[in-house]
Write a structure and sequence with these properties.
The chain is mostly helical. The chain contains 4 helices and no strands. Helix 1 runs antiparallel to helix 3 and helix 3 packs antiparallel against helix 4. It is elongated, with a radius of gyration of 20 Å. Pfam families: Sdh_cyt.
Length: 121
């Protein structure tokens, strides 16, 4: 009989725990800071906000840079969350892989679309 506790304990699994926890917190913080920065800019606009004012917010290179960073953070945040949900609640490995591939392709497509919209402004 093998002993599976103490110093000879064998730990198995993907070992994503701390890294994923930290990634969720860091990406969440980045998205919150971006939201605050965007709200400050919107609140500083006098009068009604039309297309010109909205496009003007994103016309600056620094705003495009932090928007791209936020889009990447959002995609990674969503990927980590969905992967964790699938790993916890979808037991058939084949179905889990299909769902993960679908979500990954969808997130990359959304990220590409977001970048396309941003750089056309």
């Amino acid at each position: 009989m093998s002993v599976n506790y103490g110093s000879k304990r064998v730990v198995t699994g993907a070992h994503y725990g701390l890294r994923d926890w930290l990634a969720q917190r860091v990406t969440g913080l980045l998205m919150a800071l971006f939201t605050v920065a965007l709200l400050v800019q919107v609140l500083l606009i006098k009068g009604p906000i039309g297309y010109e004012q909205w496009a003007g917010i994103f016309a600056h290179q620094w705003m495009k840079f932090i928007t791209v960073g936020t889009l990447v953070a959002l995609a990674y945040h969503a990927w980590v969350g969905m992967r964790e949900i699938f790993m916890d609640y979808v037991q058939p490995a084949g179905l889990r892989i299909v769902l993960q591939v679908f979500v990954l392709v969808w997130l990359v497509g959304c990220l590409g679309w977001g970048l396309q919209v941003l750089w056309r402004l």
